[in-house]
Each structure stands twice: as C-alpha cells, then as structure tokens.
Amino acid sequence: MQGTRHVIFLALAIISLTPKALLAINNLSSLAKNDPFPVFTTLDPQDFLYTQEKLRMMGFQDTVASPKIGLSFSPFGQNADCARNINNQTIPLGDVHGRFFPVGLLFGCLPKGVCCLPEPLAEAFDVLFPNKTPGTLVCDEAAQYTDPNKQLGFFSIELKYKKRGIRFEGSTKLFGDFGLTTQFGIVDICQSVSLIRNVTCSACTVNSSQDCGCSTACANPTQSERTFGSCTKVNSDFNQDNINKFLMNKFRAIACSIGLDTDDFNKFGVEDLRFHLFWRKALLINSQRDWYPEFMIYPYWVVGASIATGKEKEPCQAWGLPFTNNGHHSVGATLGIDFDFVNSIEVGAEGGLTHFFDEDFCNFFVPTSKFQSGIYPYSTNVTISPGLNWHFSAKIAAYQFLENLSFFFQYVIVQHKKDHIKLKCCDDCFCPQVLEDISFWKVQVANIGFNYDISPNVSLGFLWQAPLSRKRAYRSTTVMFGFNALF
Predict the structure, then answer these.
(1) What is the rounded CA–CA span in Å between residue 202 and residue 47?
(2) How far is the C-alpha of 217 from the C-alpha of 152, rounded, in Å?
(3) Closest C-alpha among 298, 453, 434 to residue 375
(4) How far apart, in whole angstroms, are the C-alpha atoms of residue 347 and residue 297?
(5) Is 349 exposed, middle or buried (CB count within 10 Å of its CB: 0-12, 13-18, 19+)?
(6) DSSP classification of residue 134
(7) CB burial readout 276-296, b (16+ within 10 A) else e
(8) Residue 131: which domain range?
C-alpha cells in the first residue's frame, strides 16, 4: 500500500541518521478513544536529555558528562468504567458510539445480494410490521418508530476496560542539536460486559450471562413509553411487549445471526512502533545582567512516524479494541517552546498535528439506516481515511525542587476530526455517513509526574494521567511507574 511505503521510507530515513539529549516526548496522538495520548515514560515531556547541559550553561555541575543514550522501562495500568458523550455527559462505556438499538436492525433497505433478513430479525419484523416487506422501512417511516429519547427499544451496556503492560523508550543524541527516540509497548487489553440493561424498563437489569431484556412488561412504564406514542397509533403491533419478546430478549441470538461476537474481549500483543526525530536549541538570557533574572529559552520541533505493528480490532467483535491506531500508519509534527528559570520553575507550551493513512477493512459493519445505533445488521468492505488529530499542551515543571525529587504537570487537549469512510463496492443501501458523523472525539487530560534521582544517571518515577474532560471517549485513568537510566 502506498501509505505503508511512505511511513517505512520515513522511518528508514530517520534511522539512517547516525550519531547529542534524551527525549521524553509524545508528539503523536492516537486514534484509540481509550488511550488517545499514550505516555511512555515518567520523565518530563520536554527533558531532551538537556538537563546537564542547561545546568552547565547556568554554571552548575561542570564535571558531569552529558549522556548520549537514555532508556526508560515503564510498567503501567489503565482503567475505565465510563465514558462521556458529545454533550460531555457521563455514560456507560458500551454507549460511547450510541446506545444499542435492536429495533433499528429492521430499518433500511437490503444490500445487494441479500434477499431476506436473518431468521430472528425476520420473525421480529413479521410480528412488529405484519403489513410491511423487509427492506421497505426507510426514511420518515423508520423515524416514527424511533424514540428520540433513546429509551424505547434501546440497550445501555456497561463495560469494564483494563489495559496492563510495559512501555519502552530508547533515545540517543545524533549530531548538533538533533536526537532520535524510539517507543513501543507490550500490553494486555481486557474489556468485559458487566451489565446489559433494557432502558425501556428502568427496573429491569440483567447480568451479562443471562438473556437480555425484560421478560414481561414493566408495571411502571418510563416517561419515554408514556409520551412516545405516535408509532403505536399507526401500528398497534409495535408495542413494548412485542419489542421485548422478539428483539430485546433475543439479543444474543440476533447478534449471532448477523455475525457479531458478543463475548468478552481479552488479547495480548504489542502496540505500534514509534520514531521521533527532534531538534532543540537553548539560549541563555540575561547572563550578563545582574539586575534581571537569568533564564533559558529553547524552541524545539519534533517529527514522528508510527508503524502499525499493533493488532487491529476485528469488526465482528462487539467489545473489541485496537492496539493503538487500528492498523493505520501515522506521521506527525510538533512545535514548542520552553522557558526555564533554572533556580525555580520551567514553563512551556506546544502544539502538534497527527495524520493517519488510509486502511482497508473487510466485513466492516455499516448502517443501512440513519436511525440505526450501536449495532448494524450488515457488513461490507470499506476504506477508512481517519480525520486529522491536533493537540495542544502546556507544562509547568520544577527540577529537584526537594533534594533529588523533580516534578511536572502537563495539561493536554487532543481532538480528532471526522473520518471519511468509502465503500469498496458502491451500494446505496449503506449509510457510511452515519459512522462518519460519530467519529469526532475530544479529550483533555492532565499528566502529573514525579521523578527521584537515586544517582546522577538513574531515576525512579511515577506518573498519573488523570482524565479531565471527554467527548465521545473513554474516561480512562493511567498510572505508570518508571525506571530511567542515562549513559
């Protein structure tokens, strides 16, 4: 693929630069809503192995040699049990792409080569719409059977997400003010169902190991059921009892009939391989002016590439997750500037972009109606062109503010633009724009790190990536421990 060749050529060009500071950076954001801004080390994000050089420029540590190589080994854990929707409201993880709407599986026309609905859906269609033909319930007619409050006929799915692993970062000085960093991780990802709830019946909740839905009508109907009545005036067969009996209670059988795997997800593998080439230049300000504070200013830029070595999410896995960018290679660039008051604090800010290359997917579930949500009846082959990621971060740090203990706080905002999804074979039945419209997401996190120097060349670290705000993304928390060595 052309995109693959571009990334490989860029990576080889970076590696071919052969050997001056260690780089603890992350200029490439991710496509993964569960881990949009992965961290690989507990070190200060702009510690370009420049610390000794900066101290020397300020007149300290004259005898300390500047390291040429740095290594970080960082075990970490990441958890989430909720997400935020586009309105920044807290929702279960399974609802991040919209609540599952089994009724919607009956909407839309039939794709080319399909002559009938799968058996469980065909049975439900005959009961709920006895005077209709499958494939004819489209547009405004489908709209009247869709609850705008997303309660009647909708599932809310609670998931538990965990990621455990270890990440590695290796850095080296090259020539002049240039350096190179390589990053990768080995992780185990688990996502399991804790509860599937039929939101039509607020009193009815079932364990994931049981059949889903309400076996009988609720004694106390929800407000949605009382107010959403236009559909029953048109079709008396479309009622809560029939919806529960033929759709909600048969969720697993329906999922199986359309080829959707609803088993818990648990896989072990490697994350994407990343390369970062950086340049930075420090300037000492007010060194000859006793009446002004002495400080350093250094601009920097970073270019990076990510090779998609991580596993892709299988389209048939309802609760599956990708290992980083879901098979998409990426390239990115970051520009930043830091102001270092060596005797007190360091402040800085940066901004960057990440571009993702196209990738083809087979048997990818695509809606056949704009009123479908969460679960879709048919799959096809597509090409996905992910939208651009941009990020901005601001940082405050203090080097050895307490004996050998250093600290930094970094605020990060990452936003993903809409994807473009193209069908490999044209079929007007499919509505990829529905998936495009929900592909936008936005994340804000805080990275809080502490590093304790146990020797001039070795430090132990702790980092907490705390969630601040989310839109269509997991509210995930990361805790990382680090062993960092300089040579």
Answers:
(1) 52
(2) 12
(3) 434
(4) 10
(5) middle
(6) T
(7) bbbebebebeeeeeeeeebbb
(8) 2-486
Q: Which two tokens stand for residue 272?
A: 């994407």
Contacts of 332 (CB under 8 A, 6+ apart): 27, 28, 29, 303, 304, 305, 306, 352, 353, 354, 355, 389
Tokens of 415: 């936003």
- Supply 413's token pair: 């905002």
Q: How many domains does the chain have?
A: 1
- Binning the chain into helix, strand and coil, the percentages to the nearest 5 are 15, 40, 45
Which of 17-21, 91-95, 108-112, 326-330 is least confident? 17-21
Please, is 229 exposed, middle or buried when counting C-beta atoms within 10 Å of its C-beta (0-12, 13-18, 19+)? exposed
Which tokens go with 174? 């090259």
Amino acid at 120: P
* SS3 (DSSP) at 251: helix
Best CA proximity match to 191, nearest among 328, 31, 33, 308: 33
Helices and strands (DSSP H and E) totals, the chain: 9, 21
pLDDT tens digits for range 54-95: 666 656 655 456 667 889 999 999 999 999 999 889 999 999
pTM higher than 0.85: yes
- How far apart CA 164 and CA 445 sit, in angstroms, is 19
Q: What is the CATH number of the domain that holds 327?
A: 2.40.160.40
In this structure, what token pair is assigned to residue 426?
């044209």
CA distances from 100 to 195, 197, 250 (A): 13, 10, 13
